[in-house]
Amino acid sequence: MRGGGLWQLGQCLFRRLAQSKSTTPKPRHFAAAPAAEPAELKKTVLHDFHVEHGGKMVPFAGWSMPLQYKDSIMDSTLNCRAAGSLFDVSHMCGLSLRGRDCIPFLETLVVADIAGLRPGTGTLTVFTNERGGAIDDSVVTKVRDDHIYLVVNAGCRDKDLAHIAAHMEAFKAKGGAVDWHIHDERSLLALQGPLAAPVLQLLTKEDLSKIYFGEFHTLDIHGSHCFLTRTGYTGEDGFEISVPSEHALDLAKAILEKSEGKVRLTGLGARDSLRLEAGLCLYGNDMDQHTTPVEAGLTWAIGKRRRAEGGFLGAEVILKQLEEGPPIRRVGFFSTGPPPRSHNEIFTSSGEKIGEVTSGGFSPCLKKNIAMGYVKSGLHKPGTEVKIVIRGKSNDGVVTKMPFVPTKYYKPS
User: Fold this and answer.
1) Does 215 show up as a binding residue in the annotation?
2) What compartments host this protein (predicted)?
3) I need a labelling partner for 352 at 20 to 30 A (CA). Which of 45, 71, 187, 320 fits?
């Protein structure tokens, strides 16, 4: 997902819409690609379905996407944690790499130990540049030794595909065997929350209790051949379902019907508040091309073998930070006063600037302000008191561990 705080984006959009119905709103601090004019926006196959169900459509990474539906963003967030949410994330880009050398090729571009994954399992990884900065984050799955499936973010699609293509051309020129397929013929649904598995189980014969967090299966769901990954972006148990686009609408309807109204269509606004509560990075806000995975708190995503061998873009910078420590670190905060927002500056009590907020808002679940951002190393430990300046006024804050809301990923007991 992309953008500078979708929750506050929604409020900004609605205020501006009320002020001028003739002007297309341009969200401030929105890290996705600049919004196209409405006539140029791409639409998912569920677009009309969203509108029929009261979806408030906004420009997002070149797509027309639902920000929210008839219920509030706060109610949608709480419903996901208590029951379930269905998100249309078809704007994201799924692709497959195939060939005997697809793994060594991809390992030149990402920090994960893909060769070490068991077939049918995946992990979060980061595409890096020559300076160790993050080009994008992605969930990558080793389907087989000669087949990798990954999903890249909508706002980074063009640059990611160009980056992969350029390096693939050079790799193949040296005799490497790898090709790719971009799955534009498929749509992507994210089913999240405690009812995700019970509801989806009603639509497939495969025993979902045997599929754990991070695992990937191909299976029939509601009569369609789907790619199923037990993952998500909310901190809840759930699935991402890649379905042939011609069957996406029927599958969405079936999921909602089987839940008897408990699983709700949910938009980008609640998706942002859910991921923030789960302490998950939003590319373009909490991580960018100038941020290394070590600084972003994603050291765990760098495989042990990769730390020893390197071999990926920016490895020299990243391995040095692993040894010596990074200059800055991503941390979480609780704070008083107005909810912190992206770019709010962070100071010590003595007035020294030590960083800035990258994401923030009011937590629907905790009923308090939460935020994440970067501070100088040494001032990143939980319990460290800080001052967060919002609209010229200093507010008390304290560094805290993340996630803010405990995750509920389905793992073997």
Assistant:
1) no
2) Mitochondrion
3) 320
Angle 271-128-169 from CA coordinates, rounded to 5°: 110
* Cβ-based burial of 59 (10 A; exposed 0-12, middle 13-18, buried ≥19): buried
Torsion of CA 411, 284, 1, 37, to 10 degrees: 180
Return d(Cα 6, Cα 392) in angstroms, integer.
Answer: 23
pTM, two decimal places: 0.91
For helices 268-277 and 73-82, give the axis angle rounded to 10 degrees.
60
- Residue found under tokens 């401030």: 28
Boundaries of every domain in the chain: 6-92+185-277, 327-400
* Phi, then psi, of 347 in degrees rounded to 5: -130, 160
Per-residue exposure over 178-213, b if at least 16 CB sit within 10 Å of its own CB, e if not: bebeebeebbbbbbbbbbbbebbeebbeeebeebeb
Give yes or no for residue 19 having a pLDDT over 50: no
CATH fold, domain 6-92+185-277, is Gyrase A; domain 2 (3.30.1360)
- Interhelix angle 268-277/6-19, rounded to 10 degrees, is 150
Terminal-to-terminal C-alpha distance of the chain: 30
